[in-house]
Amino acid sequence: MRTGSGGGRSRLADRPTRAVIDIGSNTVRLVVYAAPQRAPSVWLNEKVTARLGRDLATSGKLPEEAMALALRGLARFASILRDIGVAEVRTVATAAVRDAKNGAAFVERVQALGLAVEVLSGEEEAFASAYGVIGAFPGAEGVVADLGGGSLELVGVAGDAPSHGVSLPALRAKGTKAFNKAVTASMARADWAAAHPGPLYLVGGTWRALAAFAMHKAHYPLSDPHAYAVEIEEADRLAKQLARMAPAELTAIAGISSSRAAGLPDAAAMLRPLMAALQPERLVFSSWGLREGLLFRELDAGAQRLDPLLAAVAHFTEARGASQTLAAQVAGWSAAAANGRGLNGSGGSERLRLAAIMLAMAQTRLEPNMRLKHSVEWALDKRWLGLDHHGRAVIAAMLRGAAGKPEPTPELLTLASEAALVEAAAWGLAFRLCRRLGAGSRMSLMASRLTRDGDVLRLTIERDRAELVSEQVESDLARLAAWLGCEGMIAI
Q1: Same domain, 115 and 127
Q2: What H or E segment, with its residue span, contains residue 142?
Q3: What is the CATH number of the domain that holds 405?
Q4: pTM for the complete prediction?
Q5: Which pLDDT score, from 0 to 100, does residue 270 have?
């Protein structure tokens, strides 16, 4: 679909460029990524449930039928990558291949397909997952817990780098009491963990299934578990309940597959002594892990420092008619609606406001009857990095204001305070006024300014642009002023 003069360039920018093949204990997965580099979008995501590690505890080997299934899937993946022209491919194998007696022989068979396999050490695997969390949560400080098919890796993160690590058994093979004792003993050796205050970041499909369970129990309004946070007391209650449940009870819940349900009670049982030992501030679930960490580490330092939210929103909205440069001008023009403060007086909101403005600009390209629903779904349901669920609600409130519906909804009030939503809605009403004044053009921005002086919100327009004033402009100014508790005035 063409989107103006940039349509062809956007199609080129969305071409798949990189891929990661992850040969794990349970699944063999191919993920193909497209732009932007700092916050790559998933172009293709396929898996084969080969269960390579299912017999390691008894035979120490990868089962022949599991290897055959994995190799068929890998041959297909290699063919797909050739057909779509993706040459930048990382193929990594983790614990099952690393620990199996016949792991090296299996790697040779994979390499015969034209895939260069890297068998990651335990530390490399853990650090890659930690870099995934660092990429998704800039400035993350805490502990990353990556649950795989047979073990749980813990890595400290601080200062945009991982450090230390410990591997724990992941199954309750000898009963809950023995299991808890083993976890407690292992944690006693991880004395570094006490030096890493902050959340416990949970990485892996089984943890995401736990998030799905928690969101279901809370009647949570969002469906994406990425950046979902749970307070420790509630997490302990949920884990205690889950540890006693049969997998069959869990598969009816959206987001919990039968394969994840099988391991979820054991994961929940592991979580309780883990939280007791680490004493984290809260749990935070991350959809970025090993694969994304591998990509993040390949970026240069400048690219790593880019804001992943703004990079992703700019890429998403550019093809929908938005310009980050113009959005920055609109942000400056409408600053009076934020009272020159951060969100609700707390600071740090300008990146949210800029992201919301770009999305609001894209919103105007939708048909009028689709604008409100679709743009709010962008905020709440599309996976953004560097954005917590409070931030999602704030952006949604701004987009509602831009669509002329500034009143906070019960759904949004479960995610953010009323004060924060009211302020964000003012950003949207200010964008609406800007758009009304001169279609949001650069010329209309340069010929006018919006200022607030006490209880007066003044729109000043240069005399040679006085014709931009209309009944609708006056109405939108009055509505914004009333929302801010001010009197609106127009000065020529």
Answers
A1: no
A2: strand 142-147
A3: 1.10.3210.10
A4: 0.90
A5: 86
